Amino acid sequence: MPPKVFEYRLGNRSALDWISDRYQVKIDKRSQIENDPNRLDDEQYIVRLIGQVITVSLETVDIVNGLPSLD
What is the pTM of this model? Predict the structure, then answer.
């Protein structure tokens, strides 16, 4: 994975870091309700999602780096 992927940021984290942090099975401490973002009907969903995030990150960095300076 090219390091440039991590240059596209959402706040203080890269988009890929954000997805990997949010896309986890979690259990709420108070209610014990499980939040499972996995899709049993589409096992390849997370693979496609990560691929899309990588593509958007790379393309966005290229576009931003290609913009003229505001001198």
Answer: 0.77
